[in-house]
Backbone:
């Protein structure tokens, strides 16, 4: 049987299969940026994403092969591409309500005994709802294309091999294109719109005139909407609205590692804040840009309390560079190095947070901290480890092997000041991460001090201070007394904080039920999970909305119908009727 396809069908099929492969991987990486702000960049988020993509593709291979045996045609093949492209265009409009609804539903049904795993299931269900349909459709492309391209069984192996090879090449190019070019420079919504349009336009080669009219109409609507900024007021909450902040957004971008926002008037007319992936990371008072505004940052000078005559400090994690700026401003004999993996954060700090990159006492390295320390020949008096957040912990920066590396890079009596987030109450799972880290630290640093930063809160920053070569903690010597003695005659630290009042005695902290973290075994996602939740900014903004009587602000958050949403909905309804005509005979049997 000879299938009725265009004369150039083999070449056309190769091109369309290539585009489908490209779209599949580009979709996977793009959707990851929708999920990470809520669920974090953990193994569970990426595991859910990869697993759902593989599930969709395997289902698509099966369904595509089955349908290809029922009166295959080039028009039906192109209708599959068209349907996947149309759904992908919808993703930016449905992402926020799907993420929010799955979070609420899963949390409502989970028993308290397994509540610590809620965020894992949330990410799995949200990922499933967002991409299972387009990946299923894209998975149907290759087996259907093999059926269309096969003229005889003699060349079946060669044809299928070529098509799967081209599809894989498309996936490789889609991966590199999205990771190295699109995500760093293009908004995620626009990447998804472009993927959808690419599939729609390419599919019209085998569809009738009505489908072409729908694509032209859709292109016109999207172009006008982007031109007139109408995409920000969609019927569904857009991805940009996933990042709610009290204040005025003055800069927003996607970096290689984060969704980054700079917010002015954050809780105060003078404050400027840095948010990464929806979480607050740094606050600056614009009238006093070198002061320490966040409470936990005022514990960074603890290193100078413990290590006298310190002159060289390393900060692991830059953020808004509050700590480095403070040290350079108030300790004129201090030399500060900062290692920050995200180069965009460094540029934002220079532009928006008064960081003087030309200061001769400051050196900034944009690379992974462990890679940096492995190759750094010198030593530091104080190392401030501030690379962790509420939603993400780089596991390789909290293992015995890494802490041994930190110790090697410290001078005698040098200190590590490590910031954590958790609940100090050992009965709460949210205490597991900092206690496991303290237990791991103790393998290398026998001397440690633990500081709470706010006794009025449960979930808070917890600071661990470690001493290289110091005597082990002893039960008969109070940590509080030691800190009080150190601070009594030290004028280098912030006088407004009496550090002894924040000491949590290490002898009272139980570490028996938590593991020692190693490069081979570091279940940080399980330990972090009870801490993680929706981004701090969303919860805070919700509270602001409830408490606010400002009608203008409430009106600005009102969900309104928009031109693109209405138009895409109408186009989808029309397409369903057209699709029914194309496939009318296949589902009757």
Residues:
């Amino acid at each position: 049987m000879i299938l009725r396809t265009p004369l150039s069908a083999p070449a056309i099929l190769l091109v369309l299969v290539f585009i489908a492969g490209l779209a599949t991987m580009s979709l996977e990486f793009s959707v990851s940026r929708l999920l990470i702000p809520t669920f974090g960049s953990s193994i569970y988020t990426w595991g859910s994403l990869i697993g759902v993509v593989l599930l969709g593709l395997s289902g698509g291979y099966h369904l595509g092969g089955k349908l290809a045996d029922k009166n295959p045609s080039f028009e039906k093949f192109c209708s599959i591409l068209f349907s996947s492209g149309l759904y992908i265009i919808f993703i930016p409009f449905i992402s926020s309500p799907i993420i929010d609804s799955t979070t609420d539903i899963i949390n409502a049904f989970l028993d308290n005994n397994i509540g610590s795993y809620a965020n894992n299931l949330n990410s799995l269900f949200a990922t499933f709802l967002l991409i299972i349909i387009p990946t299923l459709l894209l998975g149907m492309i290759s087996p259907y294309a093999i059926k269309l391209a096969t003229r005889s069984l003699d060349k079946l192996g060669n044809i299928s091999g070529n098509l799967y090879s081209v599809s894989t090449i498309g996936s490789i190019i889609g991966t590199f294109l999205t990771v190295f070019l699109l995500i760093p420079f293009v908004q995620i919504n626009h990447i998804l719109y472009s993927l959808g349009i690419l599939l729609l336009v390419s599919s019209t080669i085998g569809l009738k005139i009505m489908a072409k009219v729908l694509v032209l109409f859709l292109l016109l609507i999207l172009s006008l909407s982007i031109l007139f900024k109408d995409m920000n007021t969609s019927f569904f909450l857009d991805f940009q609205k996933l990042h709610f902040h009290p204040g005025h957004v003055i800069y927003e971008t996607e970096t290689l590692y984060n969704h980054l926002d700079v917010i002015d008037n954050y809780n105060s007319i003078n404050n400027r804040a840095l948010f990464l992936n929806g979480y607050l990371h740094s606050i600056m008072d614009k009238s006093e840009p070198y002061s320490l505004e966040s409470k936990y940052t005022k514990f960074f000078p603890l290193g100078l309390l413990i290590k006298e005559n310190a002159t060289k400090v390393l900060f692991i994690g830059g953020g808004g560079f509050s700590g480095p700026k403070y040290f350079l401003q108030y300790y004129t004999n201090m030399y500060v190095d900062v290692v920050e993996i995200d180069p965009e954060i460094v540029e934002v700090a220079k532009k928006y947070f008064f960081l003087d990159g030309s200061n001769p006492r400051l050196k900034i390295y944009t690379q992974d901290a462990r890679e940096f320390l492995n190759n750094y020949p010198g030593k530091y008096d104080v190392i401030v480890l501030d690379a962790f957040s509420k939603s993400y912990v780089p596991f390789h920066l909290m293992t015995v092997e890494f802490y041994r590396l930190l110790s090697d890079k410290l001078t005698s009596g040098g200190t590590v000041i490590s910031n954590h987030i958790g609940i100090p109450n050992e009965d709460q799972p949210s205490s597991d991460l900092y206690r496991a880290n303290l237990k791991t630290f103790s393998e290398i640093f026998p001397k440690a001090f633990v500081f709470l930063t706010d006794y009025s809160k449960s979930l808070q920053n917890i600071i661990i201070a470690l001493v290289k070569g110091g005597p082990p903690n002893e039960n008969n010597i109070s940590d509080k007394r030691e800190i009080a003695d150190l601070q009594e005659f030290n004028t280098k630290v912030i006088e407004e904080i009496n550090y002894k009042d924040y000491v949590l005695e290490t002898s009272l902290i139980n570490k028996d039920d938590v593991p020692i973290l190693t490069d081979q075994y570091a279940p940080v996602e399980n330990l972090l999970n009870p801490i993680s939740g929706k981004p701090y900014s969303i919860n805070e903004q919700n509270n602001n909305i409830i408490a606010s009587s400002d009608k203008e602000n409430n009106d600005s958050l009102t969900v309104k119908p928009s031109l693109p949403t209405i138009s895409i909905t109408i186009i989808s309804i029309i397409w369903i009727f057209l699709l029914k005509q194309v496939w009318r005979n296949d589902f009757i049997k």
Summary: Residues 317 and 503 are 24 Å apart (CA to CA).
